[in-house]
Amino acid sequence: MFEALKPLPQDPILQLMQTFREDPREHKIDLGIGVYKDDAGNTPIMAAVHQAERRLLESESTKSYVGPAGSPGFGRAMADLVMGEGSSLVRDGRVAVVQTPGGCGALRMAAEFLRLCRDNATVWVSTPTWGNHLPLLGGAGLNIREYPYLDPATLQVDFAAMLESLAQAEAGDVVLLHGCCHNPSGADLTFEQWQQVTDLVLKKGLLPFVDMAYQGLGDGLEADAAGLRHMAGRVPEMIVAASCSKNFGLYRERTGALMLMGATDSVTSAANSQLLSVIRSHYSMPPAHGAAIVETILGDEALRADWQLELAGMCDRILGLRRAFAEALAPAGDFGFIARQRGMFSFLGISPAQVRRLREEYGIYMLESSRVNVAGLNDRTLPVVAEAIRTIL
Ligand code: LMR
What we know:
- This is Aspartate aminotransferase.
- The protein is α/β, with parallel strands linked by helices.
- The protein is 46% helix and 15% strand.
- Residues 13, 33-34, 130, 132, 183 line the site of (2S)-2-hydroxybutanedioic acid.
């Protein structure tokens, strides 16, 4: 049976990660896959994570099954983190949370759930969006439509085009939004634009689906969730996929959460029972370790304060790198947008041939689209990368 299958190329982000690992050049620089790196070029385990792991090792008394929803304590902590401490939506039982294998698990289970709600569901995604959104959502059988988001000439949000396109959506269509730190562009909606999208969602009867993969790495934990929270407070239903990969640095532990918000507690509870059945038929139950770390940190005042401090430091460092990178590139053109954008990524706006030149001649890796992971730069590599870009331009 297998012999009929043709070999498939890897996902471009993962392929680039592998090519980088296999590159023997010592001076190579990785601005490809979205992982945070410190000034020494390492992706550290956060101090609070280390502490929490030590505590778990001491206190964990069983490895018995957790159940399809995962840990309820993790779910409550994530609801507070995303929706805000003391959120009335959570208090009123309108938000159900399940623990998922990473943000990807949350996205895919949401897509499977949406197929249950509506057999021919359509989800609108931004152009561009994270490459893996398309297989994650389309693979579950959702119809995918795109709304223009980034103006390729200015590398800023083309909000008028976005609204005009979403005005074509039909009642019951799903709109995928990036909660903050848009991947791949770094160009986020302003709070006023979130308000306008909320109005459109209400007027057209659309279902907002927010991918929150970088909370805390744009402008801070609270500011990054402001648009989402405004929307959640006004719409009857909403879906949120949250990831702990970046803000807890738990990438390989595959830790995420999926939240369903319904119009009433009983609607939410029924919807959640369907979701749990979807989960049972896919992976049965989520892995426990990463979520136990998050639950331990968020449930302990001192660990939480330590984590927040370290995360705020990472966020500040990215903002500083953005300003320094834009400045270093200034002689080659207007790269001021890099300083204005948020999160790990920005497009440089250079051609695939120039991207290839940077990789082959200088050992500098970025996606073919010219997406760079700004958080992969440091004091030593930033001038090297800026000089190489200035040269090829
Ligand atoms: C990225 O966009 O580089 C990250 O979200 C990692 C991934 O899995 O693609």
